[in-house]
Amino acid sequence: MKLQVNGRLHEVRHGDEALVWVLRDELGLTGTHYGCGIGMCGSCTVLVNGEATRSCQMPARAAQGQAITTLEGLATRSSGGEVRLHPVQQAFLESPLQCLWCIPGHVMTAVALLDAVPRPSTEQIEAHANRNLCRCGGYNTIRKAVARAVELTREEA
To answer: I need a surface site. Which of 2, 32, 74, 147 has the fewest CB within 10 A?
Structure first.
């Protein structure tokens, strides 16, 4: 079975496994974290055709023929080899939190939001940030990071 992950086609063996495990164990993309396993916490969020998706709830086989983006697929590389972080990644890097286990899911959720709504309201940012859990209680910092990502996106344009 083949999956398109971060713009590349990958042959995978375990199509009946949850997508989170195929990404982590078969493809070595450990930026996608496993949290609760029941789709509640959001740590495993990836983009599937641009939509924030809980990868612990999706069999890898269901993602066949779709474009999957993980945390590792957000940054770009210039022709000179310089890595350029996605504005959301940069904003979260500027806003340190405690344990960081939930951050990949928050980043991916924020990317989906900003792709759909380039200039979200405070209420939209809060609603999207509240879709994922943070055991450390970093919600204010997370919301500020998403607002900062909006600023960085505007600066790039």
So the answer is: 2
pTM: 0.95
Do residues 74 and 86 touch, judged by C-beta distance below 8 A?
yes
pLDDT digits (tens, 9 = 90+) for 108-126: 999 999 999 999 999 999 9
**Angle, helix 122-129 to helix 139-156, in steps of 10 degrees:** 130
Query: 2-73 belongs to which homologous superfamily?
Result: Beta-grasp domain (3.10.20.30)
Q: What is the pLDDT of residues 84-94, one digit of tens each?
A: 999 999 999 99
Token duo for residue 101: 């286990």
- Region of residue 152 (left: phi > 0; alpha: psi -120 to 50; beta: else): alpha
Helix (H, G, I), strand (E, B) or coil at 53: strand
